[in-house]
Specification:
This protein is an alpha/beta fold. The protein has a single domain, classed as Rossmann fold (3-Layer(aba) Sandwich). 36% of the residues lie in helices and 26% in strands. The chain contains ten helices and ten strands. A six-stranded mixed sheet has the order 6-7-8-3-9-10, with helices on both faces. Strands 2-1-4-5 form a four-stranded antiparallel sheet, with helices on one face. Strand 4 and strand 5 form a beta hairpin. It binds adenosine-5'-triphosphate and magnesium ion (MG). Residues 46-47, 89, 165 line the site of magnesium ion.
Length: 240
């Protein structure tokens, strides 16, 4: 029987800034129904991998496929139409706009306004804490709420797979818990997830599988439980 194509498959990806290599020969995949995490310290190359996948940075080698289709070097807006959505590093909300306007902008690839309204309803079912604040200015929200807005906005394009760049950074533990539960719930609703984290404990606890990135290279990959128990990971990333 033919195996289902992975939702996301990256093979041999390399990228540089000028002459300086940032990631080298990175391969990873996200299969249907999975939450996959990429763990790495500051400067390991995590955001660079994401930027290459989503068409914001040109890779020097390698390929990216979505649901079995080669999408290497497609521009970001084409990838959104193919079902890939990104929650970028630092959230990048429109802080002077309302929550509702931020969500509408997340649906910018679509022009059917009744479908956008329906999607907003569907998305808000995951975010009860945002529902009553649609006309509030996004910049007035707490850090955790702003992160939720960023996730909600990414959901507005009706993605099949979502990539998140350090969604829990700088948030209080209780908010980190809320975000990781939210991602589990979103995954259950049928959206596959690639999440990048420095916080290995949080990342491994919510994921099926994980990759470890060091110096721009994948140095380990395994199911999340196995990695959480490995001595190498415990020493370097879990402080055990
Ligand atoms: N715009 C840029 N110009 C030049 N070098 C860059 C640029 N962005 C990143 N780099 C370098 O590329 C390497 C990988 O950076 P990247 O941002 O991908 O790491 P990261 O794992 O996302 O780190 P962090 O956890 O701090 O976000 C680092 O050495 C960084 O200094
Ligand atoms: Mg980064």
């Amino acid at each position: 029987m033919l195996r289902e194509a992975p939702s996301l498959q990256v093979v041999g990806l390399s990228a540089s800034y000028g002459d300086v290599p940032a990631v080298t020969d990175v391969s990873l995949e996200v299969r249907r129904g999975e939450i996959v995490t990429m763990i790495g310290a500051n400067g390991a190359g995590k955001s660079t991998v994401i930027k290459c996948i989503c068409g914001l940075l040109k890779s020097t080698a390698g390929s990216v496929s979505l649901f079995g289709e080669d999408v290497t070097a497609l521009p970001a807006d084409r990838l959104v139409r193919k079902g890939l959505s990104v929650v970028p590093e630092g959230r990048r909300l429109f802080t002077k706009m309302t929550l509702k306007e931020n969500l509408e902008l997340g649906a910018y690839t679509r022009n059917d306004s009744s479908a956008v309204r329906r999607d907003m309803e569907r998305v808000l079912t995951h975010f009860p804490e945002l529902r009553d604040r649609l006309s509030a200015i996004a910049g007035t929200f707490s850090g955790g709420q702003q992160q939720m807005v960023a996730v909600a906005r990414a959901m507005m394009s009706n993605p099949k797979i979502m990539m998140l760049d350090e969604p829990t950074i700088g948030l209080a533990p209780v908010v980190v818990d809320r975000i990781s539960h939210l991602l589990l719930e979103i995954a259950k609703s049928g959206v596959d997830i690639l999440v990048i984290e420095q916080n290995a404990e949080v990342a491994l606890s919510m994921s099926n599988r994980a990759y470890i990135l060091e110096g721009g290279r994948v140095i380990a990959e395994d199911d999340a439980k196995t990695l959480a128990q490995s001595e190498q990971v415990q020493k370097a990333y879990l402080g055990i």
